[in-house]
Amino acid sequence: MDAILLQIFNGLDKGSAYALIALGLTLIFGTLGVVNFAHGALFMIGAFCSVTLQRLLTLSHETLDPTKLDFLGNPSKIKTPYIVEWFGADAGNTIIDWSVPLAILFAIPIMLAIGYVMERGLIKHFYKRPHADQILVTFGLAIVLQELVKHYYGANPIQTPAPDALSGVMQILPGVVYPAWRVVYFCFSLAIIGGVFAFLQFTTFGMVVRAGMADRETVGLLGIDIDRRFTLMFGIAASVAGLAGVMYGPINAPNYHMGMDFLVLSFVVVVVGGMGSLPGAVLAGFLLGILESFASMREIITLIPGINQIIIYLVAIVILLVRPRGLMGRKGVME
């Protein structure tokens, strides 16, 4: 039973990342009708926002410590972060320790700006083009962003550790312990998903957006600038992907190809859940994460070697054969 519970928690952990990325993808497709293959790159950029803030917070200068001498008897040179010098040792080191959660505030305006520039500068020119054209241009954009990150940050993974207080394990159930940061990530993903749904469901802005997703022309005839609202939704979708990347850094060290690693799986999640269906994207993300987790068990791999690598695609094939529009997709959409 403990092993089963651990696999469920592992699946929810993986499913959190799938659901957040798929949620952003579905927001973009549902509002703009664009198949955005650059969305995985936004996840990667969010992770490197955390890396950038960590580097900014640890900027330091050399000082002489007369209490420590080198082998020649001269005062040793030590590096002191500016933030420690400004705020004191306790406060400064605490800020550095909590750099990953603080990166949320750092990443939100950056991701909003990137989403706005991407939509206004490139995506808007492809609204009426075939989906194949949209896939090609956004995939090309993803490669450009990936190579830029590789150029400036290097090809090796960069560690972004969780705060010391959340770097150990916590007891979830009697006899069941789990990494604390993974629990935090799951709770964070639920908060983001709940926030997006509440925003769309209970705010005037969200109601107009949902109306525009259902009938864009009629909303436009009412005198509402639906294009501007959809542009803002693109920025929000970019922010969701970016925040997912920020908090994922302590689980998987950021690297330049992590966006591509998640992109294909996230598109499978979107298709299984139903193109344009936000609840479907979230449901499929968690379900496929749990399935992948159970398929990774040693007993299953011994019985069916390699099943953990293909289980998501097998499930997608079966569902699309039986229900081409996905689990919760609207009839006629991508069917």
TrEMBL record:
Transmembrane segments: 15-35, 42-61, 95-114, 183-209, 230-251, 263-288, 300-322
InterPro entries: ABC_transp_permease, BCAA_transport_permease
Membrane topology: Multi-pass membrane protein
Keyword Phosphoprotein annotated: no
Keyword Cell membrane among UniProt keywords: yes
GO BP field: amino acid transport
Record-level GO cellular component terms: plasma membrane
Keywords: Amino-acid transport, Cell membrane, Membrane, Transmembrane, Transmembrane helix, Transport
Alphabetical list of Pfam families matching this protein: BPD_transp_2
Localization (cell): Cell membrane
An MF annotation (GO) of this entry: transmembrane transporter activity
Family matches, as PANTHER family: ABC TRANSPORTER ATP-BINDING PROTEIN, BRANCHED-CHAIN AMINO ACID TRANSPORT SYSTEM PERMEASE PROTEIN LIVH
Homology family: Belongs to the binding-protein-dependent transport system permease family. LivHM subfamily.
Protein name per its UniProtKB record: Branched-chain amino acid ABC transporter permease
Organism whose genome encodes this protein: Sagittula salina
